[in-house]
Amino acid sequence: MNRLLTIAVADTSVIIRNGLVSLLRHLNGIRVQIIDIATADSLHEILTLHKPDILIVNPLLIGYFSLQQMKETCKCLNMKCIALVSTIMDQLLLRQYDEQISLYDTSEDLYKKIERLQALSIEVTVSEEQQSLSAREKEIVICVVKGMTNREIADKLFLSTHTVITHRRNIARKLQIRSASGLTVYAIVNKLVELNDVNL
């Protein structure tokens, strides 16, 4: 895991926070930037400001409020949340978390859980990017599938040839498809074109 992870640690206990922060800083194979959150009052403000990759939080700080609602309010939709369980907790409350750690977990347990969440986060980001063609990019895919040249696409959509080429690069990056035949299959499967529209 080479990427720098921003991890927020939120608990009212300075001993638990400092212990967890120290443990995170000494995990081999993970580079971290730590954000320390001591109170429920500062939680939303700090999350909004820093947008961490992972939040390790005592669920009592959040209570029965929806984690999803908090992520939306703080604009941290991709943030993974780990419940820091230090007492007996309602399992219903813990279901909304991506993972759980307890005071009895080893450093190896913590490493594995963070590594798993990071891998999930990367998969979701790639998947979302691949599915997120803009309306203009979809128009360009349709034109390519119909056999139009970059110049013809530019004329039809009132764009410069350079802009069309830039859009085509973005499409190739997002979909990981480099050929017109690959785009044709993508367009048919995603119902952007009918089979009889395709230039064979």
Mean pLDDT, to the nearest integer, reads 85
CATH superfamily of the largest domain: Response regulator
CATH topology description of the largest domain: Rossmann fold
CATH architecture of the largest domain: 3-Layer(aba) Sandwich
Q: Assign the structural class, choosing from mainly alpha, mainly beta, alpha/beta, alpha+beta, or little secondary structure.
A: alpha/beta
Question: Could you give the order of the helices and strands?
Answer: EHEHEHHEHEHHHHH
| The CATH top-level class label of the largest domain | Alpha Beta
Helical region count? 10
Distance between the termini: 45 Å
In what order do the strands lie side by side in the largest sheet?
Answer: 2-1-3-4-5
Overall shape: elongated
Uncertain runs are none
Please describe what this structure looks like.
The protein is α/β, with parallel strands linked by helices and 200 residues long. It contains ten helices and five strands. It has two domains: 4-129, Response regulator (Rossmann fold); 133-197, Winged helix-like DNA-binding domain superfamily/Winged helix DNA-binding domain (Arc Repressor Mutant, subunit A, Orthogonal Bundle). The protein has helices at residues 14-25, 40-50, 59-62, 67-74, 91-94, 107-131, 135-145, 150-157, 161-175, 180-189, and strands spanning 4-10, 31-37, 54-57, 80-85, 99-102. It has a five-stranded parallel β-sheet with strand order 2-1-3-4-5, with helices on both faces. The radius of gyration is 23 Å and the shape is elongated.
